[in-house]
Each structure stands twice: as C-alpha cells, then as structure tokens.
Amino acid sequence: MALRFAAMGYHAFVLRYSTFMGGTFGFPDFQKEMEVNENCMHPTPMREIGKAILTIREHAEEWLVDVDKIAICGFSAGAHNCAMYSVYWDKPIIHEYFNGKPEMFKPAATILGYTLSDYLFMRSIPKSPIDQQLFEVSNLAFTGSKEPDEETLKEVSPVLHVSESTPPMFLWATSEDTLVPAQHTLRMAHALADKKIPYEVHIYEKGPHGLSLSAQATAQAKSQIYQDAARWIVEAEAWLEKRLALDLPELTQFELMEKDNKW
C-alpha cells in the first residue's frame, strides 16, 4: 500500500503501532484465557499516530515534507485507529499527553478502508459463534474487557465524536463484508454530513473484508481480487489531488514552453 501511494508521488510512511499479537499473523487461541496487554490498549494506538506525526514534523525539512498536507490512511482495525485519531487529535488525550499544541497533531485528510466506527452498533448485530469470539477477544485486547461498559464503547466509537475539527475523509467498503459490515462506513459518512465535513464514500457490491488494493499486488488468492472494488485507489488518488493540490501557477502552453526555453 505504501508503494502504491509512493507511486502517486507522495511520501509514504508505515506506522507499526502496538497490537495485542505484536505484529505477528494469526489469531490467539480462543480456548485459552487471554491476559490483558496494557501496552496495546486504548488510547495507546491512536497516540502512536500522534507520535508519528510529531516525528515527521521534526524531520520535515530533511525529508521534504509539507506538514500542512499530512494525510493518514488505515484499513479495518487500522482504519478504526485512524478514525479515532481523526476525532481526538485536538483533544487533551492527545496533545496534553505529548505536552504540545493541538495544531501540531492536525491531519489534513483521512482515508478509511472497511473501518469499524461504531462499537455500540457492532455489539448489537447478530454474529456467528466464531465472529462473536473474535469480537470478544478484540474487545479484551483493545479495552481490557471482553464486555466493555457502555461508557467505554461510546468512547471508542469515533462516529460519536465527529466534530467541526474532524478532517475530510475518503471512505470505502463492500456490501458483502460480514466481519465489519458496511453500515460502519455509512454511519461515519452520516456523522460527517451532519457536521458538514467534506467526505467521499464508496460502497462496492462485491468483495469480502480485508481486500487492501483488491488486485494482484496485495492478493493472496483470486478470491481477493475484485475489479470494481479495485477502483477505490484510483478514486482516492483523485480525491487526494483535490485535498492536497500543489500550488501550481496558471500558465498557458506557450508560457510553459517559453519558461523551459523550448520555443
């Protein structure tokens, strides 16, 4: 994914934020009692986005970064983390923790792929036994409890905290996603619309959860390739060009040729 954004001409940074499994693949043994890992619990993951942005700002001149045009992008749990940061970046839980001014943490735009945005909704939808187990262990990993209380679920539901300071968002998901239903994306779009935050949303008909680019570059099998869903990255590129456009002069072709001494 980083290479795809780099191919567009953007600097691409990959954040390896703290997770329960420590970055390893697979799932924990559902039959064994899980121990709470405080290193990956809320609010650590979104604070690590803030730390990453501070690091980029610190090296902005060296790395040739426009600090006013830093966008964040995530998928699934990573999208939830980006959504959380997008609604909390200017709150004390971020800037006071780092003892910095809120504007130091501001993202210019956010891209969310098949995001989880509403834990209250997620709790209420019917689930298969395996999905219910996954939801419970995810809750434990993120909040420290398999059944978090109402207040905690509201706190970690970014859709409930969208405000006038939330950055513009590009949202996409698939209607066939059963793990994180598309309603999460639609709920986020609705919350953005209520606050008049610019957004663009795409719900593709076909495709399961976790498609990434939905192309051969990221697929592990043909079942992860859907041409319609693969259009999201092209749409996102066009959207980013509107949000992060370069300040280019208005020159005619004649003026350009004269400027380049090609006349």
Fourth-level CATH superfamily: Alpha/Beta hydrolase fold, catalytic domain
Structural class: alpha/beta
User: How many distinct domains?
Assistant: 1
CATH hierarchy, class? Alpha Beta
Number of helices: 11
User: So what's the overall shape?
Assistant: globular
Distance between the termini: 41 Å
Q: Pick out the low-confidence regions.
A: none
Helix content: 25-40%
Q: How much of the sequence is in beta strands?
A: 5-15%
Which radius of gyration do the C-alpha atoms yield? 20 Å
CATH topological fold name: Rossmann fold
H/E series, N to C? HHHEHHEHHHEHEHH
Global mean pLDDT: 93
Which sheet architecture does the biggest sheet show? 4 strands, parallel
* Overall strand count: 4
Report strand order across the widest sheet: 1-2-3-4
Give the CATH architecture: 3-Layer(aba) Sandwich
Please give a structural write-up.
The chain has helices at 2-7, 44-58, 60-63, 77-88, 92-95, 119-124, 129-143, 150-155, 183-194, 232-243, 253-259; strands at 71-75, 109-113, 169-174, 199-204. The chain has a four-stranded parallel sheet with strand order 1-2-3-4, with helices on both faces. Helix content is 38%, strand content 8%. The model has no long low-confidence stretch (mean pLDDT 93). By secondary structure, the chain is an alpha/beta fold. Helix 2 packs across helix 4 (77-88). It has one domain (2-259): Rossmann fold (3-Layer(aba) Sandwich), CATH 3.40.50.1820. This is Alpha/beta hydrolase. It comes from Metabacillus endolithicus. InterPro entries: AB_hydrolase_fold, BD-FAE-like_dom, GDXG_lipolytic_enzyme. Pfam families: BD-FAE. One of its GO terms (molecular function) is hydrolase activity.
